[in-house]
Fold:
Amino acid sequence: MQNSESRPLPVDGQHVSNQGIDWGRLAETQDDGYDTQSIKVLAKERYGWEKQYPTHDAATWLEGTVTLRPTSDDGDGVEHHPNIVAAEALLREFWPAMYRQCQELLQTVVPVLAPNTAVAPLQSGCTCGPVGDRVSFEIMTTINGGVGMIEGVVHEFAHNKLKALGISLEHWERLITNPQPTREEIDTGTGDFVYESPVRKDKLRPLGACISAHYSYVYVSEWLVRLVQSDAVDPEHFAGWLKTMGRRLEEGESVVYEIAELDEPGTQFFGALHDWADRLITEVDQLTS
Structure:
């Protein structure tokens, strides 16, 4: 995780709001692509970002819309790895709206096959991270399982999406109005404006990082719930991981709604996010009880 981040390009904060965006429809991936189109506008205005599609000679994913940039150890032909092929098929079948959103926004995936790990298309769990610290929709994820690869993709996708909406790990310009921590508070994890993250427990974190962690695991939970509800996998195999997701969602809800101070777009966005997370908590409980 980066210790510092690039600031977005300076723009009038009201410029985007005045376009009449329905912020309540930006929390959850929309079947009609509403949030995808809004994110394109927001990412371009705040970061100057526009998706670059694969070159003609690049390895690709999701029907040629996403560049695969393998590490040197993985070599050529990584797009044919069975877990990458399985991940594409699973995402397309069980979360088609997210599949389409990734086609339009996800730019690059750096796939990494971790050593000494069994390779299985339905294996869950991953190690993932961003490529760079700006909105880029470029991510790194392990591919030891097709299910796990999608976990990494949607986890890092959520971080990028939230940055485009106005909240980065260490600073924010929209949705929340809490005071921002100093560099010293961020580095030491001590002070009045750092908090306990629902995921990372080694030190207190800026509110943006806490919210980003929560948002990323809402996305991961949605993916796992959809997969288990489909009967494509053994529910018992995912029960423990789902319970972990449920606990993280409950803790993330408390962080967000006890600490976050919201502006008008934030009230709409976090209201919708709360409804989404609450629904997932209920569904996780039903699937694991």
